[in-house]
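Question thread 4412

I'm putting together a teaching handout and wanted feedback from people who do this every day. The idea is simple: show students a protein as raw sequence, then show them the structure tokens that encode its fold, then repeat with a second protein so they can compare. Below is the first pair exactly as I plan to print it.
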Amino acid sequence: MTRQDLIQLPPAHLPPAHAGAPARRRSGVRRAPAVLVVAAVLLAALFGVYPLLDRVDSPVVQAVDDALGQGSTASGPIGVEGGEIPDGAATLDDDLPAITGLDPALADAVRQAAADAAADDIDFWITSGWRSPAYQQELLDAAVRKHGSLEAARREVATPEESRHIGGKAVDIGPTEADYWMIQHGTDYGLCQVYENEIWHFELLTEPGGTCPPMLTDAAG
């Protein structure tokens, strides 16, 4: 197996899309087959110190951990059941976990905003809402693969422990015209843009007509 072959290996902890929930970690200690141990050593050697220094649950480290039976513990379903929205757009009337899992107070505020935006002839979509920890981890791992490091990835995607999407406390809105409408009118409903680099991410952070807290630079805080 060449270095290129190993680099192209998919993260071992992620199942194919819509394959269901990731396997739970088994209790106890088991001995890994020799070929998996060799693969783990080769992966660690090829990718150097990055996964060790960047994060212990990076895709490369998880590939090694999974080979040894020590995979990610992020729980919950993935795919639509984990909060993915088919085609990337939904309304608050859609019967999807991403919508039904939203905090009721947040959903009510967004519903009022959507109705008023429609009155202004503004299209208003929900592009992401509630997410399971496993789906959030999947998004983070994809961002790590895209950007090459956890530090860069976390500017766009929070960890499962930090993401407000996990508790249904955050919603992403589209299209762009709706985002700018919300930036202008969101405080009328208590909805605030949270990150400077994400004009689509809103949370219920103040009373209607109140003042939003200062924005964070990005999801890394």
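The second pair follows. I'd like the answer to focus on this one:
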Amino acid sequence: MSTPHVLLGLLAAGSRHGYELKRAHDERLPRARPLAFGQVYATLGRLQRDGLVATAGQEREAGPDRTAYALTGEGRAALDRWLSAVEPPMPYVASTLFAKVVVALLVADVDRARSYLVAQRTAHTARLRELTAVKTDPTASLNDVVAADFAIAHLDADLRWLHTTLDRVADWHREVHP
């Protein structure tokens, strides 16, 4: 995820201070890792340094001063370029799940590799049920439903791969350990 671009997108609707940006991020991307306040302010500092945002005033509510930030013209252009660029499909398999299965086959026997795959399938299935419950919850926001749909699609792909790999694990192990 490109945190700077997400923050630029959140500022496109108008100026906000860091706390509001963090809250908006966590609300709009409910299944993403929540942003830390330090990450928000460090990113805003870099965006300001690069001329993509500018301070838009300060306010003091019951606490410390809060600096509001606004998107600059250059920031809007950077956001538009990012939104116009098509994300290329991942050229490499970069998954801890995949790496663990490969390593399990290198260092363990077929039964241990199979046990790992079964345990992982169980964990994925449990997470799939949790996300399905989110989607069917009548109080779920559309943000939650769209994020759950995205996660479910990825879990479904992983589950299909786990199932196929379970069918191939013995042959794969023989190939690795001739």
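Top answer:
Good format. For the second protein you could add a caption like this: Residues 37 and 71 are 19 Å apart (CA to CA). Helices lie at 3-11, 18-28, 37-49, 73-84, 96-107, 110-136, 142-176.
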